[in-house]
């Protein structure tokens, strides 16, 4: 139960010239599930570790509730952290691993027992309390790491890529477990990941970072549908959004093999902002490129002839790599129609869903 | 032709046979310099052989019975145990603690570690001479400053109560760099995240040391204990240089006494061999006990 406020947080490591994190501002609401996402080295873990108190804050103020905690030791911040490699104490049993923090806080033995047993029940660890970490599977270790945080009932839960050491199936399972845990505990959680799917599925709000700078903060819906810039557009969503430089002129965009009319609202925005005759970045999500007859019929003015270079069947959908007059694009289409490389394919672009970004700043022009 | 180049022939090509061939040099060295002298010592201990091998005859257990009557031998053994009890724990504790404090690879820590390791590379003879001179009541630097400060000047190596602790301290000073280096590698292999988790759990630096570091390096502590115990039980050089076993045999160690029996008049090599055999058995017992303790602790931890 806590609000966290990061005000102009900067981090520069010793002997480093550049800031690892630059001017990070964020208000985390009580009980909110925040996910920091970005490519490796973007500063997301560094920011989390600053909140934990494991890294010093170079500049700026960090508030937990009303207090500035920049110089408060980790143990006095009332936080718990789950590490990527779990960081379980190898020589202690599961019980002792979870009880360690409570013992250090001189909690009465009965209460420790009660709390650990409660957490163990919640996480399905009751039968494993006497085991040592070496005798546990990856998923079980992950649960113990969560349990160690749960027993403390901290104000804030911090998780640093907690699922990246698990195999794909277990990862999806534990993702749901973490979502449930958040429901049950009603604690503020900050979660770091490089996996945009984890971010999309878990977060109340996502913080997308690149090169130490926040690119966008928003709900999963917002960041997916209204990306602030080309980086967010390409990072969120899988397969990634198609982004191509095109020339805009008189309501049409033209590029290598591309010649499309933009939607009326887009035309208005582009004209108003003086992009007529300019180069812009045209972005379209793979699922907004359609191949069904009904879509082709609906917007014949956006239909283009393409050639399939690679077809990947994922089950319900096919991911098609298509050659649009020399420009490589990716489309996600219904797998009911059979596709194979070399085929020609007529596709329709849903220009209402197209995104346009400035070529210099990569900031969004029109959504 | 090609086959002959690539193989040693049918017999040696069998995996086991070839392995023994590769082990042969080590086995030979072990046999000639360890096993043979060991067996030889045990054999000689049942004779009254002297250094010049004249009039040798078999005397059975006489040498061993003599040991139990020999007050100087018992005294030497007690001195050795005393030295070991002073030296080994001190060296291990100092080594591990220093390694823990210097575990981060900062420039200062690297420099400090090198400084602590420096005495290791000089010989005990040199270290002994240096400290004997620094602490010499007549010409030493320390007594000089004590005198200047108007403080009483102790006799250091000439004081029967001080001599053995001083020799032990000198040994710790000279050798704890080894314990430091060995425990450092063990300590540095502990993942940082364990300490970070403990920090968030609320552990102080001391609690991290006792709850994380120590349990993680039990095998290393065992190794240090065993090698150190063996070395301490065979202490010789530094005592020979600083006190020559004095004053009044207060610092005479087992190996020193053995040496004086065998290599000074009347050159009783047989008796010296018997004493060596006794020392060997004692070291073997101590080592075995230490190994068992370490093994049990290790099992408890993993």
TrEMBL record, chain A:
Gene3D superfamilies of this UniProt entry?
Answer: 2.40.50.100, Nucleic acid-binding proteins (2.40.50.140), P-loop containing nucleotide triphosphate hydrolases (3.40.50.300)
InterPro entries named among the record's database cross-references: AAA+_ATPase, ABC_transporter-like_ATP-bd, ABC_transporter-like_CS, ABC_transpr_MalK-like, ABC_transpr_MalK/UgpC-like, Mo/tungstate-bd_C_term_dom, NA-bd_OB-fold, OB_MalK-like
Location of the ABC transporter domain: 4-236
Q: Does the keyword Ion transport apply?
A: no
Q: Name one GO cellular component term.
A: ATP-binding cassette (ABC) transporter complex, substrate-binding subunit-containing
**GTP-binding recorded as keyword:** no
Q: Name one Pfam family in it.
A: ABC_tran
Query: Per the UniProt entry, what species is this protein from, by scientific name?
Result: Atopostipes suicloacalis DSM 15692
UniProt keywords (A-Z) are: ATP-binding, Nucleotide-binding, Sugar transport, Transport
Q: Name one GO biological process term.
A: carbohydrate transport
Name this protein carries in UniProt: Multiple sugar transport system ATP-binding protein
Q: What PANTHER family is this protein classified in?
A: MALTODEXTRIN IMPORT ATP-BINDING PROTEIN MSMX, OSMOPROTECTIVE COMPOUNDS UPTAKE ATP-BINDING PROTEIN GGTA
Instruction: Please give one Gene Ontology molecular function term for this protein.
Output: ATP hydrolysis activity
Automatic annotation (TrEMBL), chain B:
The regions listed as transmembrane in this protein's record are 20-44, 81-102, 114-134, 269-295
Bilayer topology: Multi-pass membrane protein
Biological process (GO) annotations? transmembrane transport
Where found in the cell? Cell membrane
The UniProt record lists the keyword Transmembrane helix: yes
Q: Which GO terms describe its cellular component?
A: plasma membrane
Ordered alphabetically, the record's keywords are:
Cell membrane, Membrane, Sugar transport, Transmembrane, Transmembrane helix, Transport
User: Hey, what's the signal peptide range on this chain?
Assistant: none
Primary localisation category: membrane
Gene3D superfamilies cross-referenced by the UniProt entry: MetI-like (1.10.3720.10)
Annotated ABC transmembrane type-1 domain ranges read 77-290
Which InterPro entries does this UniProt record tie to the protein?
Answer: ABC_transporter_permease, MetI-like, MetI-like_sf
- CDD domains, A to Z: TM_PBP2
The UniProt similarity line reads: Belongs to the binding-protein-dependent transport system permease family.
User: Which PANTHER family does the record cross-reference, listed alphabetically?
Assistant: ABC TRANSPORTER PERMEASE PROTEIN, INNER MEMBRANE ABC TRANSPORTER PERMEASE PROTEIN YCJO
Q: What protein is this chain from?
A: Multiple sugar transport system permease protein
State the species of origin: Atopostipes suicloacalis DSM 15692
